[in-house]
Structures are given as structure tokens and as C-alpha cells.
Amino acid sequence: MQVLVRDNNVDQALRVLKKKLQREGIFHEMRMREAYEKPSVKKARQKSEAIGRQRKLARKQLQREGLLPAAKKKPGV
User: What value does the mean pLDDT of the chain take?
Assistant: First the structure.
């Protein structure tokens, strides 16, 4: 992964790097690797995540077809 620093603006480069790491899921993976996860717990978590992904895809498909209203956008903070 590479981030360019423009005009010696290191703060902006760090923000860009953190955003890229967040999108790639690096922080989530680091948290998961901090402690041992039993195989049974890991299997249950993976199954739960897969179900969530499938529900999300189905919900988006229904929204595209017009059978569900579009998701409400959160107000900007």
C-alpha cells in the first residue's frame, strides 16, 4: 500500500492511509488476531457474517426492483 505525501502534509497522508486501511479491513483483522479464537466460535462467527452478507445482497436486490423503499440516509454530523 502506498500513500503520497504532498507539500509535506503528513497529517493528510495519515488520514488517507487510515482510510485505505479501514476499507481493506486491516483494523478488523488486527482486532481478530489479538486473542485466540476457538474453532467453534470462529465457525459460528463466519456463518453469522455470511448470513448478514446474503441478507444485505437480498435487501439491495429488492430495493433495485422497487419492492422495498430505499434505505434512509443518516444525517451528516
Answer: 92
